[in-house]
Known about the structure:
This protein has helices at 2-20, 30-35, 44-86, 150-157, 208-221, 262-271, and strands at residues 103-111, 114-122, 140-146, 166-169, 175-181, 184-191, 194-201, 229-235, 244-250, 253-259. It has 274 residues and is α+β, with helices and mostly antiparallel strands. A 10-stranded mixed sheet has the order 1-2-3-10-9-8-7-6-5-4, with helices on both faces. Helix 1 runs antiparallel to helix 3 (44-86). The relative contact order is 0.11. This is Lipoprotein. Residues 22-73 are annotated as: Disordered.
Amino acid sequence: MKKELGLFVTLLTMGALAGCNNQQEPETSQASSAETTATSMVESTQTQASSQSETSQSSTSSSQAASRDSSNTNSTADIYAQIQAAFPDLVLPKDIPLASGKVLNAATAGSQSDASILYYGLDQQLPLNDKALNEETPIAAFQSKDYQSADEAAAAVNVTADDGGQAVDLGYGITGHMQGAAGSSYLSWQEGNWSLTVRAVNQEEQDPVPVAKEVVAYLEEAMLPAPEVGQITIDMGKNDHTATTVVWQQEKTLRTVQHQDARSALKMAVSMNQ
């Protein structure tokens, strides 16, 4: 919006200068005015003034954008600190990927032994746990829950990977297995103690293979926490914050990360290993 305002001011300046010389310039679109010069009927002094004005506006817009980005970064850092203060003894995600220009907001609930956090990407910063968040849609979630025993925590992971069905080469020496059920295709594979499954909806002609290959390639470069048991489920049929779930057991604790975007969910989990 500020770039468009800068171009508008530039056009007004060129129009005023042309008027002083009793000359008129043909109207141009915002795109062409940013890339073409004035007609030959405009004197060189007018062109120079227009160029200086445009440069000044561009510099101002860049400065304001940098200031806005810095403000968003500071707000995000502040909300991370507030969440950590609410759960000082928990390992929490250090990276919640957001859409460009959005600011991180959060709502927390529970205690150290059963903590839940919902994350929101909004246009403005709200206080932690602001009631207005009840009207917003979360983009991600985190939960940490302690069980009475390690066996209970492991059972809660609910591993779904299956090595039956058609073999699929996912690259990097990893083979997945795909099979269909109830209008869906399930592609599963194993990486260490992690079981991974991508579900695709057949009616929507979704293909789980490219998604699985992208995950495999990403995990060749990034390191997830080391679980005793872990499950990653990517549901291509969902578009809310539960679309991708990363859940794992470490001793008596079960940790769960969710995000509407598969790569972002993995980044959240990876950030807990740093």
